[in-house]
Design a protein that fits this description.
Bound molecules: NADP nicotinamide-adenine-dinucleotide phosphate
CATH topology: Rossmann fold
Helix content: 40-55%
Structural class: alpha/beta
Shape: globular
Number of helices: 9
Strand content: 5-15%
Strand order of the largest sheet: 3-2-1-4-5-6-7-8
């Protein structure tokens, strides 16, 4: 393995929407960015378009399907073969589907994609993160987490895709909070944070029915912001020296849909730590992997 002085970031779902703009921002900040995407073709197109916009960008494409745990494991193995450390992990990839769908393991697809795949990815790579405050794990939640619950007895949410989306985004936020608590009790300096992007007209809504889709298109100039603005909370969480582990950021304007980045509002369910702990254990069971926080000295090959 050649020496790797440059800081390294992974952005999942880097080829489109908010992930694309997050990749640009991380590359602008001087990171070598791994574009972790499920489609090689889309990733190549996105990379070419970033290189046009930012010729100095240092980018790599690595394939991953975050809804498929075998693919997540294979990605982590390949990453470890190529890189000695990981500074920032931005768990951005996500889907919003309106019908009941499952992944290869029979798990509700949004829960598997938005939460479980990222839970597993983080568990498999966290020992490569240097023990300093610039090391960040960033989870993408949503205002849709408000009012949601984790339906431990039926993660399919009775086949209701909208409810399952809210559940998955609550899971992302609870995971970041619980990860941060566990990092702190292990006296680790890595920071785990959550963000939500507000609203942006990305590919996320492509599965809407025609009426919903055209209504969104008509309203979006008034209520949403660009994908570049929607990426700001992620970039703030990943890069700002001012953030603390466990913070949750998003746009602070009307209905939290757009506006300057600031502290975002959590659903009160996030105050109940037993829910986050139960989710952690449930996630470990579903991905068949214990997620232990490694002690700082166990980072043999990680750069300081
Ligand atoms: N846009 C909003 O208003 C909004 C609001 C709240 C939260 N969010 C969150 O923001 C994040 C980014 O979404 P976006 O709005 O930028 O949507 P997007 O334009 O649809 O981008 C989603 C990205 O995730 C990738 N992805 C989906 N499933 C994947 C899988 N199984 N494995 C690997 N990659 C996968 C997509 O790849 P393909 O191109 O191959 O499909 C795409 O690159 C999501 O977590 C979403 O929940 C967005």
């Amino acid at each position: 393995m050649t020496p790797q002085p440059q800081k390294i970031a992974i952005v999942t779902g880097a080829n489109n929407g908010i992930g694309f703009e997050t990749t640009v921002g991380m590359a602008e900040a001087g990171y070598h960015v791994i574009m972790a995407c499920r489609s090689g073709e889309k990733a190549k197109e996105a990379k070419a378009s970033i290189m046009k916009r930012l010729p100095s960008a240092s980018l790599d494409i690595m394939l991953i399907d975050v809804s498929d745990f075998a693919s997540v494991r294979s990605f982590a193995d390949k990453f470890r073969e190529r890189f000695s450390h990981l500074d920032v992990l931005i768990n951005n990839a996500g889907i919003l589907v309106y019908s009941a769908q499952s992944d290869a393991d029979g798990i509700e697809l949004q829960f598997a994609t938005n939460h479980l795949g990222h839970f597993l990815l983080t568990a498999l790579l966290i020992d490569l993160m240097p023990d300093n405050p610039a090391s960040r794990v960033v989870a993408l939640s949503s205002v849709a987490h408000k009012g949601a619950r984790i339906h431990f007895d039926d993660l399919t949410c009775g086949g209701n895709g909208g409810i399952a989306y809210g559940q998955s985004k609550l899971a992302c936020l609870l995971f970041a909070d619980e990860l941060n608590r566990r990092l702190q009790s292990a006296r680790r300096k890595i920071r785990a944070l959550a963000v939500h992007p507000g609203g942006s007209d990305s590919g996320l809504f492509d599965e809407m029915n025609r009426l919903q889709y055209f209504t969104l298109k008509a309203l979006s100039p008034f209520i949403t912001h660009s994908n570049a603005s929607a990426a700001r909370p992620s970039l703030h969480a990943a890069l700002s020296p001012q953030v603390a582990g466990g913070d949750y950021y998003g746009p602070t304007g009307i209905m939290e849909m757009r506006g300057p980045v600031g502290h975002a509002k959590r659903d009160p369910v996030c105050e109940d730590k037993t829910v986050a702990q139960r989710l952690w254990e449930c996630s470990e069971r579903l991905v068949a992997r214990k997620f232990e926080i490694p002690p700082a000295q166990a980072q043999g090959n990680a750069a300081a």
